Sequence to fold (270 residues):
Amino acid sequence: MRQALIKRIVIILVVSLAVFVFSLSALAKIEVYFSLYDDPEAVIIKNIYAAEKFINIAMYTFTDIEIAQAILEAKDRGIDIKIYLDRSQVKAKYSRSRYFVQNGIEVRISSNNYIMHNKFAVIDNEIAITESYNWTASAGERNDENLLVIDDNYVIERYQDQFNNLWNNKYSPERYQELISEARISSLPATKTTEEAPAPLGNKIININTASLEELDQLWGVGKKIAQKIIDYRETYGGFKAPEDIKLVEGIDDKKWDKWKEEGWIIKIK
Fold:
């Protein structure tokens, strides 16, 4: 009698656990899209617009200007953007890598001497976007591709861990410097916007007491909103008394200051 009761309890526990696990898996959501039939580009842009904290991107080929402009708008909203690219993107004719660095977005280039073939993004640790779809016009308009949008916590964590590994351990400072050089001398393909992006300062010297919003926007991590805050601060307090005082502006921290120094910017007040 006692053994039968124990057996019954064990069965109940096993069934309950199975139901619990199934319930958790049922909470995960995966959306599936196909190019030429659905509109993966619009799905990507929608999720970029929905970002609230950060967007981490690892992409083999990135040429899509519509997605690139959505990323710039996200940066201007204060979203932290990191883009990790294959080495081919340093010089590829239509690559948006140069467009990104010219607009102050943090980019790293893979150190892999063969191919960095990943195509994924993690947004806010809320979703992962992945599969065969490169962020290119060809992927959306000519190729047969697929795109997954996943909100499963385990999958998102795996992709975020891999992004961190690539970003921190498998990047090439030499290739990044080559990209910076290319960005200064290469003209970008025409975009669909009428507003031209400002050209980067050739000598990388910026006077924060006189710089325009467009000039300030060239600094890494400074979008138009933070640039306006810098201008508002100097007008309110009669200008900056020392270059480091820019860190008193909301949105400017040691990370940005150190990055500017790393990129060779000279911050002046007169």
